[in-house]
From TrEMBL, chain B:
This is Macrolide ABC transporter ATP-binding protein. SUPFAM superfamilies: P-loop containing nucleoside triphosphate hydrolases. It comes from Herpetosiphon geysericola. The lineage of its organism: Bacteria, Bacillati, Chloroflexota, Chloroflexia, Herpetosiphonales. It comes from the Bacteria. Gene3D superfamilies: P-loop containing nucleotide triphosphate hydrolases (3.40.50.300).
């Protein structure tokens, strides 16, 4: 018996009892439908989040030094650093292959008080913060732009100030005319010591805060004075380094390598990997719900097949008498069961796809109303899910058919022919 | 042994069944020889073992002891696979209740043994139409069994039994479900096929009138052959 004949025979047997066949495969449909909806939701949401992360730039690696272990004696002093991001390290990283750029970053934190002063105008003074300039865009905010000049200073002694801070200093002229303006940062310790630093304005940023941007060296100079530590750069190094790798793979390798060197490394990729793990668990849980439905469907198919074999006992006897082998009978009934599963799988897949499209529309309409700038497919069916759904349906059918088919194959033709 | 002119030869054939604690002896030592190209009727009261003998000769059942040769194959010792191919390629079965597949068209039913043998669909269709023509149903090839009368269905079944060009046709009460007129037509058809195609036909019946169409009548009782009758018939009587 050729495979085409088996398929044709199985098909005509299934269409003989259309309602029963449809109802039986409905069980598989429900199972596959659940799996497809659940998994496409899991995959879709994960993809949308991935797209958001991609916007941030996954190839960026943020390196931080590691603080040495504290003991009871060092508990209340500034922590020693186990590894230091020294200028030499920055230079070394810049020399590496596949690295686009390395930016050292100094965090002049909020507790260090600093005021922006116009030289010769004692009245014009405001408290400011120093923008460390991490350089990673937040996809939920519009990135700052340079209203005049540049966004980051390139030479020591240069400063970029937000338009808001300039206005509060009383500099209300057209921003382009302010470039070249001399300003001072004045630091004052609680003990009353003070020191001023001179800068030239090279840019005006659109940031909505009282922020200034300095070069790393100038930032270090501020901290060195504050902590009274002239060798600060040698001792503590920079606070961060932003390494922009050529691509994601390089970023991944770099992360591993730097961690081995005892640096603390944050890459968005690390966060994403954690998110993937969480999504895997969620997907498995969601998939299990469908799995349970499929288990019930398997029993349903088995039941239908056993009933069909009972009804068709005499037919099986006839086929055996005229020369059908056990294998022929077994293959025939397994094919019938497999087809029931396959149809259930296909219908479940189509249903899951359709419902996913509808729910996606609802979700997008909701996000639009709430003005969240996220777009995408929350119910995404990747090719592997198509294969999984159809394959699973088929396998469920075949597995359900194993026992009934074996029973049919074992029937004694003489008894089967006498069956009423 | 199988080289003689006889197609079927059984020696000391026994078949016992276990029915609970009782042992039923369906065949109690049957020695029978049937020559090629004869129409043999097996008659006897129910429980006489005639159907069991038919099943054993058809390779559906195995003897408890003794030998059963069909042509050069000893069925009692043959492996299962041999029995399957024996039934598929060399025997044709005709049943009392026709046993056609209801979803298949007449020609597909006729071609079933060829499908099992793995022949191509076009070859099957051609052969089936040819056979349906022979049994007088050339115009019913595309009908389903439900659209045919009992006599027509049995003729489709006869065509199916001929599909694999068998050496032996086994018929179990082929006229049991037919009225006497159509029964007579079917018997005449079977008689004609034996004459024209030189096939051997073994028919179980309890109807003596049906048996009278055969060349030989084997009477069975209590699992044994009681008497063998040979019916002399002139050529004119056949026609």
């Amino acid at each position: 018996m050729t495979f085409g004949d088996i398929l044709r025979t199985a098909w005509s047997n299934l269409t003989r009892r259309k309602v029963r066949t449809s109802l039986t495969s409905l069980g598989v449909t429900v199972g596959i439908f659940t799996i497809v909806v659940m998994l496409s939701l899991g995959v879709g949401v994960q993809r949308v989040i991935q797209q958001q992360f991609d916007a941030i730039g996954l190839e960026n690696v943020v390196v931080q030094p590691r603080d040495a272990e504290r003991n009871p004696y060092t508990r209340y002093v500034r922590p020693e650093r186990e590894v230091v991001i020294s200028p030499a390290k920055i230079a070394e990283w810049q020399q590496m292959d596949d690295i686009v750029s390395v930016t050292p970053i100094v965090d002049v934190n909020e507790s260090i008080s600093k005021r922006l002063v116009l030289p010769g105008d004692a009245a014009a003074t405001i408290a400011v913060g120093v923008d460390p300039g991490i350089g990673i865009n937040n996809p939920f905010e519009t990135p700052p732009t340079a209203l005049a000049g540049v966004l980051r200073p390139t030479k020591d002694g240069e400063i970029v100030i937000s338009q808001r801070a300039l206005r509060r200093l009383g500099l209300t002229a057209e921003v382009n005319n302010l470039i070249g303006q001399k300003v001072q940062l004045v630091m004052e310790t609680p003990r009353g010591e003070s020191q001023s630093f001179d800068y030239t304005l090279v840019g005006v940023s659109s940031v909505d805060n009282n922020l200034v941007a300095l070069t790393p060296n100038d930032s270090i100079a501020l901290k060195a004075w504050w902590f009274n530590e002239p060798d600060l750069l040698d001792k503590e190094g920079y606070d961060y380094a932003l390494i922009r790798a050529k691509d994601l793979n390089v970023a991944r390798q770099l992360t591993t390598q730097l961690r081995a060197e005892r640096f603390r490394v944050q890459s968005v990729e690390t966060v994403l990997e954690l998110a993937s793990k969480i999504f895997l668990v969620i997907n498995i849980m969601l998939g299990s719900v469908g799995g349970l439905a499929l288990f019930v469907a398997t029993i349903g198919i088995m039941n239908t097949m056993i009933m069909a074999i009972y009804e068709r006992t005499r037919e099986i006897g006839t086929l055996k008498a005229i020369g059908a082998s056990r294998g022929n009978i077994r293959t025939l009934f397994m094919t019938e069961a497999g087809l029931i599963g396959l149809f259930g799988g296909i219908v479940g897949l189509l249903g899951g796809w359709g419902v996913g499209r509808i729910l996606n529309r609802v979700a997008l309409a909701y996000l639009e109303r709430e003005e969240v700038p996220i777009r995408g497919d929350f119910f995404y069916i990747p090719p592997w899910l198509i294969g999984l759904a159809i394959g699973f349906g088929l396998v469920v059918g075949i597995v359900a058919g194993l026992y009934p088919a074996a029973r049919a194959a074992r029937l004694d033709p003489i008894k089967a022919l006498r069956h009423e | 042994m199988g080289q003689s002119t006889s197609l079927i030869r059984t020696t000391k054939l026994q078949r016992t069944y276990q029915m609970g604690k009782n042992t039923v002896q369906a065949l109690a030592g049957v020695d029978l020889e049937i020559e090629r190209g004869t129409f043999v009727a097996l008659v006897g009261p129910s429980g006489s073992g005639k159907s069991t003998l038919l099943n054993v000769i058809g390779g559906l059942d195995r003897p408890s002891s003794g030998e059963v040769w069909v042509s050069d194959l000893e069925l009692g010792q043959a492996p299962d696979k041999k029995l399957v191919s024996f039934r598929r390629d060399r025997v044709g079965f005709i049943f009392q209740s026709f046993n056609l597949l209801p979803t298949n068209q007449a020609w597909e039913n006729v071609a079933l043994p060829l499908m099992l043998a793995g022949r191509s669909r076009s070859e099957r269709r051609k052969r089936a139409e040819n056979l349906l023509e022979q049994v007088g149903l050339g115009d019913r090839a595309d009908h389903r069994p439900a659209e045919l009368s009992g006599g027509q269905q049995q003729r489709v079944a006869i065509a199916r039994a001929l599909a694999n060009d068998p050496v032996l046709i086994l018929a179990d009460e082929p006229t049991g479900n037919l009225d006497s007129r159509t029964g007579r037509d079917v018997l005449l058809l079977l008689q004609r096929l034996v004459r024209e195609q030189n096939v051997t036909l073994l028919m179980v019946t309890h109807d003596m009138n049906a048996a009278s169409y055969a060349d030989r009548i084997v009477h069975m009782r209590d699992g044994k052959i009681e008497q063998i009758e040979t019916i002399e018939r002139t050529a004119e009587a056949v026609a």
